[in-house]
Design goal:
Blueprint (H helix, E strand, L loop, with lengths): L4 E2 L5 E2 L8 E5 L3 H12 L3 E5 L11 E4 L2 E4 L4 E3 L3 H9 L6 E3 L4 E5 L6 E4 L10 H5 L6 H15 L6 H4 L3 H7 L4 H16 L8 H13 L7 E4 L3 H15 L3 E3 L4 E6 L5 E5 L5 E3 L1 E4 L3 H7 L15 E11 L8 E4 L6 E4 L1 H4 L5 E8 L9 H15 L8 E14 L5 H4 L10 E3 L12 H28 L4
Parallel strand pairs: 3-4, 3-16, 4-12, 9-18, 16-22
Antiparallel strand pairs: 1-2, 5-6, 7-11, 8-11, 9-10, 13-14, 14-15, 17-20, 17-21, 18-19, 19-20
């Protein structure tokens, strides 16, 4: 079976087969990058197709106004072991930082910061001191929150009944007030699930809290990129893929995947020769999958019903420093999380802040002027130094379909990597990784998809060998 493609310069290539066969990876996000590297390491010849002029999927950066701007603030936790493993493979660990110990400053207008820190005690006692001193809740609310945390440890994230329930309903059933849901539980659930607790699946919320906070003390330590995201997910990724022998073709959009007569696949890409492969890993957003794969793959109808949830990021450049912290969370304010991104953007004097707004249904419909009026005032109320500062730049980036919705019942709609068409494999954070739509979930899905594709190729190779073809 031949693999005919056209490279980025328009030159035809017919690479020789090696090892297990030829794998095409459609989509150059974190899932696709991981799958391509794993397949190449196992001995397959791999070609990666990406419709955009860059790799990185939903975690990327662009240049704007002389600044290197991330499309949004992306963080990871110490428990995100596969994503951190990918960073090591990309030689990009120097481009990120990871807290030695969890410490979240929580700000409110007119109040001193309150810190959510972990101690050296084993989980969940490592959070006890912070919860005792969390004065944004009453004493009664803190006691009730501690009891709810103990109860949440007992929820099975794999239980379909838990998946069918709303996290908000469960919290109220366990004595959580509206204030506690907003000022404590939502502080963690909203950015990790990209949904407010009322809209989120109990099972998915349980997975987040158990994995990140309630079962292992260091698991929730927070990490983030110190450099523009594209230096990691695009530049470093392309370099590593090239070293692994993966052919990367940017600006090459797959339009249809067809079953070949010989058991392989053909990928139609606009204006380019057909790509032929023995296996295909489809690592694209869930709302593109059913339009791309053949009906014989029998992708469950529930995939199209996963829905999406938006994220809005506000980018504000001040003429002076207004925040003396690398990041902070907000309560009693529309500001959810704010990050100092001055160094990574290449900003000179002053300070560049990024406000990340998850589950941003309302904000996604607001104009730039409306957002500026609301959030510049909110930052002035939250950060005293911002009251005398001049805003030199203000712009907005919006991801209207940033993630799938981890709503009640979503787990049942998330498919595994395997389809009814052997060798046609699904990948992406929306597949059934057990994780919400995170960088960790994307990388995990890519690894699982690669194993599935490689297993199919190995089985075919054995059949050909037994038949005397090899």
């Amino acid at each position: 079976m031949s693999l005919a493609v056209t490279n980025g310069n328009g030159n035809g290539r017919h690479p020789e087969s090696r090892g297990l066969g030829r794998v095409a990876v459609v989509g150059g996000g974190l899932a696709g990058i991981t799958a391509a590297l794993d397949c190449a390491r196992a001995g397959a010849h791999v070609i990666l197709l990406e419709s955009r002029p860059r790799l990185g999927g939903a975690a990327y950066s662009v240049q704007r106004g002389g600044l290197h701007v991330d499309n949004g603030q992306h963080v990871f936790l110490r428990c995100c072991t596969t994503y951190r493993g990918l960073l090591a493979r990309l030689g990009a660990l120097d481009g990120v930082t990871l807290q030695p110990r969890l410490a979240i400053p929580v700000l409110a207008p007119g109040a001193e910061p309150v810190w959510l820190r972990r101690s050296g005690l084993p989980a969940p006692l490592h959070l006890a001191q912070s919860l005792i001193g969390y004065r944004f809740l009453s004493v009664a609310e803190r006691i009730a929150a501690a009891r709810a945390m103990v109860a949440l440890r007992g929820v099975d994230p794999d239980d379909p009944a838990a998946d069918a329930r709303s996290f908000g309903d469960w919290l109220r059933e366990h004595g959580q007030s509206a204030g506690a849901i907003e000022r404590l539980w939502g502080l963690i659930a909203r950015p990790t699930l990209n949904l407010i607790p009322d809209d989120a699946s109990l099972a998915q919320a349980a997975q987040v809290f158990q994995t990140g906070l309630l079962r292992d003390g260091p698991a929730g330590d927070i990490g983030w990129a110190r450099v523009p995201l594209s230096e990691i997910h695009d530049v470093a990724a392309r370099r590593t893929l090239a070293q692994a022998g993966v052919e990367v073709h940017l600006r090459m959009r797959a339009e249809a995947i067809l079953s070949g007569s010989d058991g392989g696949f053909q990928i139609e890409a606009g204006g380019r020769p057909t790509v032929r492969a023995d296996a295909v890993i489809v690592a694209v957003p869930h709302d593109r999958v059913t339009r791309l794969v053949p009906a014989s793959a029998r992708v469950p109808a529930g995939v199209a019903q996963l829905g999406t949830s938006p994220i809005v990021n506000l980018h504000i450049a001040y003429d002076r420093r207004v925040l003396e912290l690398p990041f902070a969370a907000g309560v009693n304010t529309p500001v959810q999380w704010v990050f100092d991104r001055t160094a990574s953007t290449g900003a000179g004097q002053g300070q560049y802040l990024a406000i990340s707004l998850s589950a941003a249904e309302a904000e996604s419909r607001m104009t730039v002027e409306e957002l500026r009026e609301r959030y510049v005032a909110a930052l002035a109320a939250l950060l005293p130094a911002a009251r005398q500062a001049r805003v030199e730049q203000f712009f907005v980036t919006r991801e209207h379909a940033a993630t799938f919705r981890a709503a009640p019942g979503a787990r049942a709609r998330r498919p595994g990597p395997r389809t009814a068409q052997p060798g046609l494999v699904l990948a992406g954070s929306w597949t059934d990784t057990g994780w919400p739509a995170t960088m960790e979930g994307a990388v995990r899905s890519g690894g699982v998809a690669a194993r599935e594709a490689l297993a199919v190729l190995a089985a075919r190779e054995r059949q050909l060998t037994m038949a005397g073809v090899r």
